[in-house]
Amino acid sequence: MTTLTLAKSINEGLRTAMEDDSKVLVMGEDVGKLGGVFRVTDGLQKDFGENRVIDTPLAESGIIGTAIGLALRGYRPVCEIQFDGFVFPAADQIITQLAKMPLRSLGKLRLPVVVRIPCGGGIGAVEHHSESPEAYFTHTAGLRVVACSNPVDGYHMIQQAIRCDDPVIFFEPKRRYWEKAEVEKDADPLPFDRGQIVRPGTDVTVLAYGPMVKTCLEAATAAADEGRSLEVIDLRSLSPLDTELIFESVRKTGRCVIAHEAPVYSGLGAEIAARITEACFYNLEAPVLRAGGFSTPYPPSRLEDHYLPDLDRVLDAVDRTFAF
Hints:
By secondary structure, the chain is of the alpha/beta class.
């Protein structure tokens, strides 16, 4: 067992993947000499050289376009988007090329490209640095979308993403980068497309991913003091969803709250709620409720504590499920 931060666990996962396969490349703005703004790629260029850890120009569309070309030549590029809000210039390449080419070629062409995106708020950053763009990509057929929430998943999931022959959007919760956990590197990881019950419970199913998993675990602890048992599930895979795990839990508890940092309106929680309603209608004791960000642009950093869903907002949704 090794104690690692989330940032270091992803770094170690990248290092292991690069040692195992010489076709794995890391590319992005400041990923080499600087080691990334969050130091997630620290030391990789020194150990693997400038031909495998590539400092790119400030051009997100060019980063993804170049990665597509490299993947067509047999490489496995791992692209870092420096901040979540910077991914939008690359959306054209991701949505119209990366996601479409395998089907366009009837499966003859594979694009094993990983797009790493530090996501979410909580670090006091300026505009365009605290977005939650996951719904854009889960809506895009042809992409796998995953979100790690802890160092264990950070280490194993980045390697699974790199080995995957499909393009993967890999979300990393930036406000959790410095949180630590013990990582067993030789352990068998969970399947890449499966969720995980991180706290069993009997009264309400609480679904979360990325930065909100810790918040929901804290809410579950607080709810236990009031005599309520919350079952917290870390979704991990956002597309595809582990609906079997979700439905089994909701059929047991009869209530469900979905939490994410992104605005509630048209967020991923809406799709999950619709699926639960279709599959578990006769098991539900109350409507599926959502706790999330407000339908506004992400505010200046002094206001982000009011914007981000916190323990109280999750518990308020839990309380409302018992009002029916």
